[in-house]
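Q: Hi! First time doing this. I have a protein sequence and I read that you can turn it into a structure. Is that right? Here it is:
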Amino acid sequence: MEAARRLKRDVEADYNSKGQVNWRRGAREDFDFEAGEQLNEEDEAILQDAKRPIAIFNPVGTTVDSVAGQEVGNRQEVQFLPRRLGVAKKNELLTSRETRKGIRTT
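A: Yes, that's right. Below is the predicted 3D structure, encoded as structure tokens:
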């Protein structure tokens, strides 16, 4: 029981450490920036007071989407190859089994 309390205390101390808090704040800003929330409240207020439209051009979003798409396209494909000639049937069955499970094959 003491070990569980000590573990809980250590996890909470790590979660609330300065480095973790700063990382989460930066991550929130990064996610907001990619989502198009690129102006702070002061800048938005200045634009609204000047009766200017708030226009956001987000080249970051298309770049992130492009990288994510490349990662999906470059996933390794599973294919079972025979070690000897004449035993390809078993490997074809294994490959087709993996295809049915959702793993792409060539």
